[in-house]
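Researcher: Go.
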Amino acid sequence: MGAIDVWAQITTERMARAPWLAPLLRWTDQSENAVLPTVNSTLAAMDAADVEISLLSAWHGPSGSLISNEEVSAQIEAAPDRLRGLATVDLTNPMQAVREIRKWVDGKKFVGVRVVPWLWDLPPNDRRYYPIYTACIELGVPFCTQIGHTGPLLRSETGRPIPYLEDVLLDFPELVVVGGHVGFPWVDELISLTIKFPNFYIDTSAYAAHRLPADFVRFMKGLGQDRVLFGTNWPMLSPSKCLEKIDMLNLTDAQTEAFLSGNARRIFNL
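Model: Structure:
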């Protein structure tokens, strides 16, 4: 079986034009048009790197919808064997957010919820998230978020694991949380939380394998071998780019399988 990419999106034009995206495009040496993939180009990129399934994120921010749940649903329907969804919500309307989660997240087509704190400038222990966590627990699906610094021109503080995410994990011990983008520069905080909380996981999206921090790679080979998931942040990075130097990590066959697919299959019930 192929890999599972737990962080991808098929970017819309309104998201590609967001002013905060400009530095990310510069870092990845891409234009707005280059980050406007189609379902077909996404599948081609997956095939090139032996990615079996990608989880497509919907996005919503203070300015409104960037990639709607409806758009992600249509994308999945174009390739239902290869694509799954992570629903989004409007944090300013928590009760409607709960209704949206119950409407879209069925554990089969939509297998979780994603909210990116830096987009809202609200850390994950803000009261507006708490009904969303309750809905995720009720439905038995993970809550996915970003940890660490932000590439876009918005504050990074909301991505610091301690105290913000630690508060959530203390208040909701049943909640499964997947933190994306490795958590740099707070890798030590991140590792300490995985030791403390059995329902906390990390994905490697936004990093090519050979660019992962050394401390994080050591964690992947030890305590973290059942806690780390593969992700790309497609279309900012392609699966091929993320995996082309994976041999440099010197993972065992069992560690490689867990990282590329096994952990994601278990956590998202794929």
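Model: DSSP finds twelve helices and ten strands in the chain.
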